[in-house]
Design brief:
single chain, about 250 residues, alpha/beta, 6-stranded mixed sheet, 4-stranded antiparallel sheet, about 25% strand, globular, binds adenosine-5'-diphosphate, binds magnesium ion, Simple sugar transport system ATP-binding protein
């Protein structure tokens, strides 16, 4: 880590599923400490791009660079080692374990198993603090709200040395208050150098959180630039190609 190299750089990435060209020559540059919104309508290729960065899908062509290194083949293991963490809507936590156990448990790393209780509690407290959160680490995860579980998933990612966090529609199930809290935590972590790809089609939160915006449509890069070049209206226009946006 460190230096001037972007956290992630995708160059001319393409991916086809059967007759569907999910991605067609897409570029993306995620800088250190950046919150990079990836915006597009349903089916535009957002999740496919994050899965390529995370090593879940192999691109048909194009390059993926992480921390300044061109990776000839990104495997899930390689991505994990490089600090990439994906937070999906169903964040793969353990409802019957406590917050501390969930954070201490590196479920992403088969074979490592559970860490000692005291270490797990300490790691949990530290990573929750980095997110600006006050959640009792002894709370059973299943007793938390969806929003709090989401935050615990992020705390776990950064506790496990994740510093490139790909959030795929993290706010889909959250209320506005919960979204605001999530955005504050993302901001606090970005200030410590954690980089985020933030996928959403809720344009209000996109313009609120993002440093940088990339818009894709039908698998193609439509626009990418600093967030201050975008407002909700322009993003909506770009992602739909001029159709009416429902928001
Ligand atoms: P988004 O996340 O922007 O909604 P996706 O990346 O999930 O879009 O999907 C892009 C396109 O690729 C869609 O047409 C989708 O149906 C297709 N697609 C995605 N994953 C697969 C897959 N594993 N198999 C077949 N088609 C897929
Ligand atoms: Mg998706």
């Amino acid at each position: 880590a460190g230096g001037a190299a972007p956290a992630v750089r995708c160059v001319n990435v393409s991916k086809r599923f059967g007759s569907v060209q999910a991605l067609d020559g897409v570029d993306l540059e995620l800088r250190r400490g950046q919150v990079h919104a990836l915006v597009g309508e349903n089916g535009s290729g957002k999740s496919t791009l994050t899965k390529i960065i995370a090593g879940a899908y192999e691109p048909d062509s194009g390059e993926v660079w992480i921390d300044g290194d061109l990776l000839p083949r990104v495997t899930p293991r390689e991505a994990l080692t490089r600090g990439v963490r994906v937070i999906y809507q169903d964040f793969a936590l353990f409802p019957n374990m406590t917050v501390a156990e969930n954070i201490g448990f590196e479920g992403d790393r088969p074979g490592l198993g559970r860490v000692p209780r005291a270490r797990a509690r300490q790691a949990a407290t530290e990573s929750l603090a980095r997110l600006g959160l006050v959640i009792d680490p002894d709370t059973r995860l299943g007793d938390l709200s969806t929003a709090e579980r989401q935050l615990v998933a992020i705390a776990r990612a950064v506790s496990g040395e994740g510093d490139i966090i790909l959030m795929d529609e993290p706010t889909a199930a959250l209320t506005q208050d919960e979204i605001d809290r999530l955005l504050r935590s993302v901001r606090a972590l970005a200030a410590t150098g954690v980089s985020f790809v933030f996928i959403s089609h809720k344009l209000r939160e996109v313009v609120e959180i993002a440093d940088h915006v990339t818009v894709i449509r039908d698998g193609r890069l439509i626009a990418s630039g600093p967030a201050d070049e975008f407002d909700q209206e322009r993003i909506g226009f770009l992602m739909t190609g001029g159709h009416v946006v429902n928001e």
